[in-house]
Design brief:
Blueprint lengths: L1 H21 L9 H4 L13 H12 L1 H12 L1 E2 L4 E2 L3 H18 L3 H4 L1 E8 L2 H13 L3 E22 L2 H13 L6 E3 L6 E8 L2 H13 L5 E18 L7 H4 L7 E4 L5
Antiparallel strand pairs: 1-2, 3-7, 3-8, 4-6, 4-7, 5-6
Length: about 260
C-alpha cells in the first residue's frame, strides 16, 4: 500500500514537470475571435462598443432589436415601413383638432349690422328696441348730434320788399289765416310763415287754401340740430328687417349700414 502511494506521488510530480517544461503558455488576453467580437481590418474605423453591444443584443433577441430601432430612428427594419414618432403624431393631432374650427364660419360674420333711426327722443328709441326684441332682433342704442325733423313747413318765400310782405299778411288774415307771421329776410327777401305740420295732408290742405286767394306758397320739410338716437340692429343671415311690419317709426326712420361696418 505504501508503495502504491509513493508511485502516485511520483506520477503527479512527473506530470507537473512535463507541463512546466513542454506546454506553451497562452498569450495574454484573448483574440477577437475568442471573445466573439467582429474582426477589424487595418484602416477600418474603430467600432463603437455601445453599437456592438446593441447589435449583439439585437441578434440574440429580434423583438428587442425592433424596439431599439423604433426608439432610435422612428423606423422598423423588420417591417420595412416608416413608423411615426410620438412628436409627429401629436403634431398631426393638433392640426386635425384645429382644422374644423378654422373651417367653420363664425356667427358674427354671417350677421349684418343695420342702423335704424334717427329717433328724436330716447323714449321712441326704447319702444322701437322693445319691438325689435319681440321679433327676435338684438339691438344696441347709441346717441349723437344730428338733425331732428320738425315737420312740413308751409310758407311764402323771397318776398322782394317789406311793403309787399305786409300786404300779403293782410290778405291772409282777411281770408281766415290769422296765424301767418313775417320773418324778416336779408338778401333773399322776407318770408311769411303759414304753419308747420307733421302731417302732409294738413300741409297740403293749407297750401291749396293759400293758392285760392292768389298767393304761391311752398312746402318743405324742416329740421333743427339736436341730439338724436340710433339703434344698431343685428340682422341674421336670411332675414330682412321690415320696419313697417314692426310698426317702428315713420317715413323719416331709415335703415343704413352701421358706422363700424363701413
Amino acid at each position: 500500500m505504501r508503495n502504491l502511494f509513493f508511485a502516485l506521488v511520483l506520477v503527479n510530480l512527473a506530470y507537473a514537470a512535463w507541463t512546466a517544461w513542454y506546454d506553451e503558455p497562452k498569450p495574454a488576453g484573448s483574440t477577437p475571435r475568442e471573445k466573439g467580437l467582429p474582426i477589424r481590418l487595418v484602416g477600418e474605423a474603430v467600432p463603437d462598443p455601445g453599437a456592438a453591444e446593441e447589435s449583439i443584443s439585437s441578434r440574440r433577441d429580434p423583438e428587442a432589436g425592433r424596439f431599439s430601432a423604433e426608439a432610435a430612428g422612428g423606423r422598423s427594419d423588420t417591417a420595412g415601413a416608416s413608423v411615426s414618432t410620438d412628436a409627429g403624431a401629436s403634431e398631426r393631432e393638433a392640426v386635425g383638432a384645429a382644422a374644423p374650427g378654422a373651417a367653420e364660419p363664425s356667427r358674427a360674420s354671417a350677421d349684418r349690422c343695420i342702423s335704424v333711426g334717427p329717433f328724436p327722443a330716447a323714449q321712441r328709441a326704447e319702444a322701437a328696441s322693445a319691438a325689435l326684441e319681440s321679433a327676435g332682433f338684438a339691438s344696441a342704442s347709441r346717441s349723437g348730434d344730428g338733425e331732428i325733423w320738425v315737420g312740413f313747413w308751409v310758407h311764402i318765400d323771397a318776398i322782394p320788399t317789406r311793403d309787399e310782405a305786409n300786404a300779403m299778411l293782410a290778405r291772409l288774415r282777411d281770408n281766415g289765416l290769422p296765424d301767418a307771421y313775417l320773418i324778416p329776410g336779408e338778401e333773399d327777401g322776407d318770408i311769411i310763415s303759414l304753419g308747420v305740420f307733421n302731417d302732409m295732408t294738413r300741409a297740403g290742405r293749407l297750401e291749396r287754401q293759400v293758392r285760392d286767394i292768389g298767393l304761391v306758397p311752398l312746402i318743405v320739410e324742416r329740421s333743427r340740430p339736436g341730439l338724436v338716437h340710433w339703434l344698431d340692429v343685428s340682422v341674421p343671415a336670411g332675414r330682412e328687417l321690415d320696419l313697417a311690419a314692426l310698426g317702428i317709426g315713420d317715413a323719416r326712420i331709415e335703415q343704413v349700414p352701421c358706422p363700424s361696418a363701413g
